[in-house]
Design brief:
The chain is α+β, with helices and mostly antiparallel strands and about 160 residues long. Helix content is about 30%, strand content about 30%.
């Protein structure tokens, strides 16, 4: 895997200097899910949650989070994203809401953290909007699915 790049010779945390890197198109896709009970699932599906449109609000929150990642993760570079999407899949048989975030830019550093942050905040928003119905919801399986661009090239997570 190589050396840690976010530390200097004395072990101090530093932001990686990307000045000399090439501008390339970079895309990252992340996923995660939240397991809910039947009442929450039905409220989301039927748009009957008292706080409003759960998935619409979570989508906006996730997109906003991609744009604010550098404010949350100390060594992330502030990035000018050219695309950020949040998509949901309702899985009735498992009572899960799956979330997928795609982040894209042309730049010198990757967008993996932005995609992961987008998924995380979207799922947290679902929890927030539905916690009055059920506080036992569980978020899980948050992971990078795929990334492309940059020196390291294309990555496809073998775990899906």
């Amino acid at each position: 895997m190589g050396e840690f790049t976010h530390f200097d010779e004395e072990g101090n945390a530093v932001m990686v200097d990307v000045t000399e890197k090439e501008n390339t198109e970079r895309i990252a896709v992340a996923e995660g899910c939240i397991r809910v009970n039947r009442e929450v699932f039905d409220a989301i599906k039927n748009h009957t949650a008292k706080k409003g449109d759960v998935l619409g609000t979570a989508r906006i929150a996730g997109i906003m989070a991609t744009k604010r990642t550098a404010d949350l993760i100390p060594m992330c570079h502030p990035l000018m994203l050219t695309k950020a999407t949040i998509d949901f899949t309702l899985e009735e048989e498992t009572l899960q809401v799956k979330c997928r975030c795609t982040a894209k830019l042309v730049g010198r550093t990757g967008v993996e953290m932005e995609a992961l942050t987008g998924v995380s905040v979207a799922l947290l928003t679902i929890y927030d909007m539905c916690k009055a119905i059920d506080k036992t919801m569980e978020m899980s399986d948050i992971r990078l699915v795929e990334k492309s661009g940059g020196k390291s090239g294309h990555f496809l997570n073998p775990k899906g």
